[in-house]
Specification:
Elements lengths: L11 H9 L8 H9 L4 E4 L6 H11 L3 E5 L3 H13 L4 E4 L5 H12 L5 E4 L1 H4 L2 H9 L2 E6 L22 H4 L5 E5 L4 H10 L6 E4 L7 E7 L3 H10 L7 E4 L3 H13 L4 E4 L5 H13 L4 E4 L14 E4 L6 H8 L9 E7 L1 H13 L4 H19 L4 H8 L11 H4 L4 E3 L1 H18 L5 H9 L4 H5 L16 H13 L3 E4 L4 E4 L3 H5 L6 E3 L15
Parallel strand pairs: 1-6, 1-7, 2-4, 2-5, 3-4, 5-6, 8-13, 9-11, 9-12, 10-11, 12-13
Antiparallel strand pairs: 14-17, 15-16
Helix pairs in contact: 2-3, 14-15, 15-16, 18-19, 19-21
The structure holds adenosine-5'-diphosphate (ADP) and zinc ion.
Adenosine-5'-diphosphate binds next to α3.
């Protein structure tokens, strides 16, 4: 039997109160919902936790027909549908995890007009048969969640999203809504263009999460720093520690446990039952610290996470924002803490170099990394930098490490010139290039076997940098890398000059460096070997 799902509620507010039990809409929710209920298109940019789901679910409940939701993450789809069913909303999904019989049952329910919401994975919609099926029913609204996946410049590009552009032509008269929690100005423009949403109304919420305090420390001994950070927190708080590799996750969790911290590991390589056990302990118990790869946290609704710590540098500001955004979703004070160092920069650049993709792709990844480094090395307010990245202007926040403790800067032009000319001379005179350690040894006038063997004592810059400690120099190198005044190159991450280096060498450009990050690396002094 064919049918059209009737309207379940007369007004959006009625739906909000009956289904979700909330008194009022938040922020732009009401305006975005009104736009779509009236039949218009909408683009909604709202940070994680802002309440995007309500924005498309409510119109589906108020309008006649079934709401079609395009969602890229199957796990999230399941969670959403379960939550909706528990609230008495008729929701279902179509994806690759289902049997043919389950799919057929969902299709029948849709055509019979029994569904308020139908979730589909984007690749399903590339399939003409799926589109034909959907066209036989009646849609109330089309929602495209995680709309930033359409951006080829973004960090999360999914080719299937490009095919969503013509949904407006396939289903004329059905209002469309694109939603995302990560959109720079460029991504926002791409969403508008590629999803053919030129006539849409735009709802851009602030991305600020004022209750999150941002802190970024120079990495000396990440695990030791992490332990003292966690110990500085009140007893019993729950937190997440993000690391890049599975090995790092396991070793860090073990290290924390050895220090008496109730830490659990979580990554895709662990058996499903272990992951499930760890996740449920994290959700239910006090004082659990989850050490995880970034796969953990998506779709996990734990509002009272008090800190998110990164011991490896995230690949992009978008990633950093998303991951730190899992802290303090209850609005209470929370901390985003990170330790990063030169090793992170070198490792990430190498991963990009050796990774897949063409030159343009690598360049984009490089740009993402540079933006991340700029946030780490900024002498200004972290939040200002972060929000600025998302196209939002703001005043210094007073709730980040740089605001709370103004970083002192100093004129690092001469130090930069010493390092740059050492690099240039080695290349020009001997066709050699080296990593930071050896270059610093030269500048510090160290007498290592390698320096003697290579007769680097004869270089004119040998010993010229003895006024700074080894640790200071490491920080200078890191900051110059961040400012793109030197570049890490090749398989071994040796240091080379960049286009911008020339102006510094010629004395045409002043280099301002952060003073407070100097000397934080556990220095070994001048190495004698
Ligand atoms: P997003 O998808 O934007 O990350 P969600 O839709 O998951 O956010 O919503 C985040 C949380 O806020 C959820 O627990 C949701 O139920 C809650 N929420 C959404 N809208 C409201 C509202 N108007 N009032 C109170 N809580 C809300
Ligand atoms: Zn600040």
């Amino acid at each position: 039997a064919r049918g059209v799902r009737p309207s379940q509620y007369a007004t959006p507010l009625e739906a909000l109160r009956a289904v979700y039990g909330y008194d009022a809409f938040r922020g732009d929710q009401a305006a975005a919902i009104d736009q779509v209920v009236a039949g218009g298109d909408a683009i909604v940019l709202m940070p994680t936790g802002g309440g995007k789901s309500v924005c498309y679910q409510v119109p589906a409940l108020v309008r006649e027909g079934t709401g079609l939701v395009v969602s890229p993450l199957i796990a999230l789809m399941h969670d959403q549908v379960d939550a909706l069913l528990a609230n008495g909303v008729k929701a279902a999904y179509l994806n690759s995890t289902q049997s043919a019989a389950q799919r057929a049952a969902t299709e029948r329910a849709y055509l019979a007009g029994e569904l308020d919401l139908l979730y589909v994975a984007p690749e399903r919609l590339s399939n003409p048969a799926t589109r034909a099926l959907i066209a036989q029913g009646t849609l109330s609204v089309i929602a495209i969640d995680e709309a930033h996946c359409v951006s080829q410049w973004g960090h999360d590009f999914r080719p299937d999203y490009l095919a969503l552009g013509d949904l407006g032509e396939t289903f004329p008269g059905v209002p469309r809504m694109a939603l995302t929690a990560t959109a720079t100005r460029a991504t926002h423009a791409e969403i508008t263009e590629r999803l053919h949403l030129a006539a849409a109304a735009h709802f851009v919420c602030s991305f600020d999460r004022p209750n999150i305090q941002y802190r970024i420390a120079a990495k000396t001994d990440a695990r030791k720093q992490l332990v003292s950070f966690i110990r500085s927190q009140p007893e019993g708080v729950v937190g997440i520690v993000y690391a890049l590799s599975r090995k790092q996750v396991e070793q860090t969790a073990e290290h924390l446990r050895a220090q008496g911290i109730d830490a659990l590991a979580y990554h895709a390589g662990l058996p499903a039952d272990v992951r499930a056990r760890h996740q449920s302990r994290f959700l239910r118990e006090d004082g659990v610290v989850m050490v995880a790869t970034i796969a953990f946290g998506m779709g996990i609704d734990k509002p009272d996470v008090r800190f998110v710590a990164h011991i490896d540098l995230p690949k992009s500001v978008e990633g950093y924002y998303q991951e730190t955004g899992r802290a303090g979703r209850d609005g209470e004070p929370a901390i985003a803490w990170m330790a990063y160092g030169l090793g992170d920069v070198v490792q990430q650049r190498r991963l990009i170099d050796q990774g897949d993709g063409d030159r343009a792709h690598k360049q984009r990844q490089q740009q993402h990394l540079d933006a991340m480094l700029a946030l780490c090395e900024t002498v200004q307010c972290r939040r200002q930098n972060l929000l600025g990245y998302f196209g939002e202007e703001s005043a210094p926040c007073g709730n980040c490490d740089t605001c709370l403790e103004q970083p002192e800067t100093f004129d690092g032009t001469i130090a930069a010139q010493k390092l740059l000319s050492t690099i240039v001379r080695l290349k020009r005179e001997r066709n050699q290039s080296f990593g930071a350690g050896h270059l610093i040894d030269i500048l510090r006038g160290a007498s290592t076997e390698r320096i003697r063997g290579q007769r680097h004592t004869e270089l004119s810059t040998y010993g010229l940098g003895a006024d700074l400690t080894d640790a200071d120099w490491r920080s200078v190198v890191r900051q110059l890398l961040a400012q793109d005044l030197i570049a890490s190159q090749g398989e071994y991450g040796t240091l080379g000059i960049t286009e911008a280096s020339g102006a510094v060498l010629r004395g045409e450009r002043t280099v301002l460096l952060r003073k407070d990050v100097l000397g934080r690396t556990s220095g070994s002094g001048v190495r004698k070997a």
